[in-house]
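From the pipeline queue, job 12 of 40. The input is one protein chain; the requested action is below.

Action: predict structure.
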Amino acid sequence: MAVTTFAAIDVGAYEVSMKIFEMSKKLGLHELNYVRYRLELGKGAYAAGRLEQSVVDDLCEILTGFQDIMKEFGVEDYRACATSAFRELKNPVIIIEQIYRRTGIRIEVLSNAEQHFLGYKSIAAMENGFKKMIQKGTAILDVGGGSIQVSLFDKDALVSTQNLKMGSLRIRERLRNLEKQTIHYDQLVKEFIRNDLTNFQRLYLKEREVKHIILLGDFLTDTIFHEELKDRIITKAEFEARYEAIVNKPAYMLAQEMEIDPEYATLVVPTMVIYQSFMELFNAEAIWSPGMALVDGIAYDYGERKKFLKSVHKFENDILVACRSISKRYSTDKEHIRGTTELALTIFDSMKKVHGMGPRERLLLQIAVQLHDCGKYISMSDVAECSYRIIMETEVIGLSTQERQIIANTVRYNSTSMAHYDGFDTAGMDRENYILVAKLTAILRLANAMDRSHYQKVEKLRAVFKDGALQLIIDSSRDFSLEMGLLKDKVEFFEEVFGIRLVLRRKRKI
């Protein structure tokens, strides 16, 4: 039986942690060790966009210690992820390189969407509890040091996810001086976050009921609710009692009662106020705190990719549902999107041996089709650029920043001339990704042109790749002359990108 030992490392805003796991197809995921150290990276990152050298030294010392532990456990592979504190740095590349040279650990800075998708995966992996909880309207509340991610579910579908920059450490730093001037610190925090919550409610909670909250955070959650966590369910009454017992106590007293570091204790009240504010906002009945953290999601994602684990939950479907929600927000033509998606995927699936793309690229194509017209909401005359900007400014949980760039550029070049690589100005897009954008654009252009009238005239499309040519056999009983006439330039670009002939045939005429 093949067994792999894997280490997941989370370089967070105020804590650096590592879990070591054993994983196999037979036994699944088994935790071997869990270590964590307090280190407030967020304090300097959020205030000045930089880390003091002494903090970098402390981080390197911690990671060197992690290396020793990994050797002790015979770790075969690892993944080290940094989150909001590193995202706030003005020049994280230099710090990451310095850390690698000193410790041998390469840190990957997760986008906000990637970070919270991994956290969400760790919860969804607990299939029985997760599926039971989301049968009613549910929100996952992921409270970090720098931000909060709120993900809304309607039964088994992830319908919306939004990030709010009001994490516990960020709130504490912004209100540190004002805290000394009031005896009602909790009310001060409530006022500070009220506007963000009001806007969130107005934009995303229309006619939506949320009965359950799933907490995904750090060790503070377990520390705060340790007495109520026997079944990991906290009722509204239990929460309110705990809230009243905490918010009026000074940090030094909370540190003694909870047996935590005084610096951690200063985060307890902001965290509790965030939880309580969302409980009121949703009028939720209960909270479920499954005790999962980012490191669990990192390990689960690794096990899934390496085929040690298999989830019955369709995570890719969550990404697509979230994109449909974005598409709906910008009033795109639902029937055109549906028809164009079918055409694009038929073309994609028929030429797998030619294009060399896989399931992930197929997903990116689906999303590009879903969002290719969203810019019309802003400007009918500059659809390509407006669509590009919307996609680049809209985080989609489960997509990396680079994947979002690929989708945005595919949409941009759907209706504008494809830039040469030397003029391709998107940071971080190498030649491989440029070629990928070209391939996805060629397919999107072709599929979109086949429904130029938005009448879904193609009743059926059969794609056959034979003798170096791709034959597209179009079944339509309607006048298809507009689409056929506009396909010529799309065909030329398609043939240039893939190096094959494209033959268009009509099966039926009027």
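Job complete. Residues 471 and 503 are 5 Å apart (CA to CA).
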